[in-house]
Amino acid sequence: MDRHDELAARFEARRGRLRAIAHRMLGSARDADDAVQEAWLRLSRAGGAGIGNLTAWLTTVVSRVCLDMLRARTAHPEEPYGDDLPERAAGAGPEEEAVLADSVGLALLVVLETPSPAERVAVVLHDLFGVPFDRVAAITDRSLPAAKKLASRARHKVRGTPAVPAAEQDRHREVVEAFLAAARGGDLDALLGLLAEDVVRRADPATLPPGVAAELRGARAVAEGTVLLRERARFAAPALVDGRVGLVVAPRGQLRYVLRVTVEGDRVTAYEVVAGPARLRGLKLAVLDVPAADWAPDAPEGSPSSW
Fold first, then answer.
1. Is the pLDDT assigned to residue 303 strictly greater than 50?
2. End-to-end CA separation in angstroms for the chain
3. Phi/psi at 211 (nearest 5 deg)?
4. 242 and 113 together in one domain
5. Model confidence band, residue 252 (pLDDT cutoffs 50, 70, 90)
6. A GO BP term, please (predicted)?
7. For position 201, which CATH number holds?
8. Do 23 and 152 lie in a common domain?
9. What secondary structure does DSSP assign to 112-147, as a single string?
10. For 62-120, what is each residue's pLDDT tens digit?
11. Nearest to 191 by CA among 180, 200, 182
12. CA–CA distance from 129 to each of 9, 162, 176, 198, 288 (Å)?
């Protein structure tokens, strides 16, 4: 094995971790792949000479590439509106896309639009991947105290205030997650079991195909309307919406829709699809609490000791 092949093998051993970092920062699998490829190109040009800790070096490069990409998004934001969802990726099954949509990276993506790119990079690196703050400071070109403040501000911005007690929120989340699973699977019977008889669905007209009513009433009509638009569910993830459990739809890292869901008991009594840019900006979006184990990807050399 020559030196280039050896370097490539060392890079491949770290690709999974690098992609996980980039995906959680960018919220887009395609953009994450681009960032990782750029890291390989830079490593290939450098030849590995003088790099003592390859994991740290590659994490720094990928993070800075992601930071540049996030800054570019901020400078040239997109305001997608209406029925503009990407095609299903070739070879990607619904299970794979559901895992992608449910990832913490996607949830963070939506609510971290408000924090600055540097804040986002800081909280993802430190809180999700255990990167020490001295490394975060170097990556973001900040002092150590400033790097800690970046992460602290991001945490504050992404943590919402629930509008209901914890036990009630947990019950609502179970109902909303069951609703999402049924919508993804196009399971009409399951949806009928989750919807109140007098449920109402309202939607911004631009989000609907021609001829579909903006308002539907009754469990059968709402269930059938949900099945009709089930392609959108593959990009949905639970989140706090104005303090209550709802859903966000953000394909390829761009927020398209928010579902404000009303739950009473164990039934969905109403949901509204919000899509207009002005209305989306008026919503308070935040992450739901997730188990600690879900925040760290399975990858080699992922512990702080590797630094």
1. no
2. 27
3. 90, -10
4. no
5. low
6. DNA-templated transcription initiation
7. 3.10.450.50
8. yes
9. TTSS-HHHHHHHIIIIIH---HHHHHHHHT--HHHH
10. 999 999 998 887 766 554 444 454 444 444 455 545 444 444 444 444 444 556 889 98
11. 182
12. 22, 27, 29, 45, 19
